[in-house]
Design brief:
With 261 residues, the chain is α/β, with parallel strands linked by helices. It contains 10 helices and 8 strands. The chain has an 8-stranded mixed sheet, with helices on both faces.
Amino acid sequence: MNLVYLTSPKGGTGRTTLTANLAFALQRLGHQVVVLDLDVQNTLRFHFGVAVGESRGVVAQSQHNSDWREYIIETPGGVGLLPYGQVTREQREAFNALLRRETGFLDQRLGSLLQQPGCITLVDLPSGPGSGLDAVKRMGGLGIVVLTADSTSAATLPLVEQESYLGKKLAGEALYIINQTHIRSRLNRDSTEFFEQKLGAALLGRVHRDEAVPEAAASMKSIFEYAPSSAVIQDLEDIARGISRSLPEAFSHDSMKFSLR
């Protein structure tokens, strides 16, 4: 099962932007990539050139017992997108109730996509514990915790092992990314060194802070297109290779024949 989900114990880590850029990095390695947005903010779409007025999304279709592959939006960059969608409060609450009540809900909607060799599904989750994280955890896959090199992230690290979040077993299997590292900041450097010592081999990689990243997002472009000389690109490519190695079926001879539909 080539499922990867990104979560963070607090907001402001740049998780959504990182998810989008990792999708492009994995695509550059030759993978077919689909990203699923389970965050009510519904902002992942902006990183893939999807029109602001686009209202389609998986939440509005949650009452239908169907394969979500038919709802994939093929973005200009070639990454498949399953957006959260524009929804009412009632639709959002009904969706969360389904995630809590039906333990196989996401398996039914994503099953055919997750079993497709050569395709990686990335899931962007909201910050902290919640029904989306609980539903994705039950499916297995590779969990990645996104932190920033600051004292707040260091303080929230023990929360990751709590039963209401990842729990000790899954926390022991999760990988970590330190986002927005800044070598000119002493606090940032000290925090990064702390995480390196604390996490050891579980640290998947670091991503340097670069103003080109938010600028690319504002331009609705990937960092690869917007700033091809950015040091961030090497960081993303290294992390993407680590993810690819962690997924036993990430490559397939048939992957080039795979259609999103």
